[in-house]
Amino acid sequence: MKESPTASQGWKTAPRVLLVLLVVAGIVAIIYVTRVAVEAPRGKGILTILPKVLTGLPPEENLIGQAILQNWGEYRHNTVLWSAAYFCCLFFSATFSAFAGLVLKLEFFIKNADLKKDLSAFLAMSAALLITLVAVGDFQKKWRTNRLAAAQMENLAYEFITADRKNALAEFSLKIQQINMLRNQEIVGGELSDNASILKKKEK
Length: 204
Description:
Largest sheet: none
Helix content: over 70%
Structural class: mainly alpha
Radius of gyration: 25 Å
Shape: elongated
């Protein structure tokens, strides 16, 4: 049995139209995520000020300062990655869900009824998988946890710049350990470990 010209045209046109729509959605998603990333506080002052302070410091002070700077850089990098993953998944999930209903309703988009059902099912499945990925991967929690840890490390850096570093190196080291421990504890969940509890008590 030969396929009708209308059905054949629908099979050829649909992927192109869908591709264009997805590309447009992708561009919008990239612009949105970029805007969010640009507007979010990033602590650029650390990159400008702290390296200058570290120049000429004794090795033991320089080591603590480098630890603060590198940990802050790692947390900020992780924040950007998890933020991009979280918002892109949410955006594309909503977009795929909308398109799933769109291809069924618009008669001029695709004439072939079977193709419309297949595309709608595929888009709905993709949307569900993205939401599941966000939930199972806990993207939002990882994004927020890394952002808060970066902010804490940023505050510690400014404290390091203005404080009596020579007599407080042990305290700075302890605070770095605490921020790192609490960050990991927030990501994996559960109760604070014995080490984290000890660090908290020592700080008080």
